[in-house]
Amino acid sequence: MENKWNVLVTGGAGYIGSHTVLELIKQDFPVVVIDNLGNAHKDPNASKPECLLRVEKLASKSVIFEECDITDINGIEKLFKKYKFQCVIHFAALKAVGESCQKPLEYYKTNVGGTLNLLQVMKDNNVKNLIYSSSATVYGIPEKLPLTEEMKTGNCTNPYGNTKFIVEEILKDLCASDKSWSVISLRYFNPVGAHPSGEIGEDPNGIPNNLMPFIAQVAVGKRDILYVYGDDYDTPDGTGVRDYIHIMDLAVGHVKAIIYQSSRDVKGFKPVNLGTGRGFSVLEMIKAFEKASDKKLNYKIVERRPGDVSSSYADASLAKKEFDWIATKNIDDMCADTWNWQRKNPNGFKSL
Questions:
Q1: Residues 120-131: pLDDT tens digits?
Q2: Catalytic one among 15, 107, 132, 160?
Q3: 93: which residues sit within 8 A by CB, 6+ positions away?
């Protein structure tokens, strides 16, 4: 068997991070997870966040966890002294579009400042392989659809998107200045769903900022009403259209990216879209979820949110060509797995 890289996963106790960690350890990658627990539940008596304890159970393997915040450069330096890494998968970030409009400084501090800390320590320790968790928001208001990797980025509609765009620009400059860096920037669309076991899933702190956990919390009776932000967009039913991607497909995309990066001598900055290539409107998602949960959802149309675009979906053909990756799960899988997770865990990772 080929030598598997030692991987540092930042933000590995978050939604996308935890599902990716599960896929990595199933494929025998040695993984160290860091997280500041800003969006992850850890029992005071437990050694690790609940999601990672469940990941260990699902994989029958253990995971090394260190509590660390990327805005603390000394903490990152200590980590790189303690462990040897060949690659970093960097998820750690604040990620709510609406919140970023209200708290831009926090977003720039964590998403840009924290990433600069990480890159500096990677450089000092000669670790130059990075898989970056980027976003479709870097495309701003789409000139045309579907979105392809060579399209113009920037002109983002919110501070969150700006932070992802700025970090991509930093990474491009870094790769241009030093040809030994290899950076794959995975631009995701809208991750939804949960592990089919219902053991791990999305557990946002406070009011969810994304559609799917909000729908699920209304279905399970945790919230009374779902707000649909705007029905006057230029889309078939007036509600926003997004490219929803199942979290397990997304997790596999990261593993395929690291296998690609470690098995070939790829250098420089490479952006790759991860999406299904088709969009669903908010109302279509509600209808699909009603079917999966067999529940009628109470929703109300309210005014648009700042920073939202009307439609966004991917051309994901580059991921297929380069990584042999393709999204395999459909909207019914996404809804069924979300519902299974929510029903089994009405309070997320917190026990009753």
A1: 999 999 999 999
A2: 160
A3: 11, 110, 111, 114, 115, 133, 163, 164
pLDDT band at 113; cut points 50, 70, 90: very high
On whether the CB atoms of residues 161 and 101 are closer than 8 A, the answer is no
More confident residue, 8 or 142: 8
Query: Two tokens at 342?
Result: 């929510």
> How many other C-beta atoms are found inside a 10 Å radius of the C-beta of residue 187?
25
Q: What is the pTM of this model?
A: 0.97
Q: How far apart are CA 283 and CA 299, in angstroms?
A: 10
* Residue length of the chain: 352
Query: Do the Cβ atoms of 252 and 207 come closer than 8 Å?
Result: no
**Structural tokens at position 180:** 């030994």
Output the six-digit token pair for 245: 């991607």
**Catalytic residue check, 160:** yes
Q: What is d(CA 42, CA 31) in angstroms, rounded to the nearest whole number?
A: 19
120 CB neighbour count, 10 Å cutoff: 13
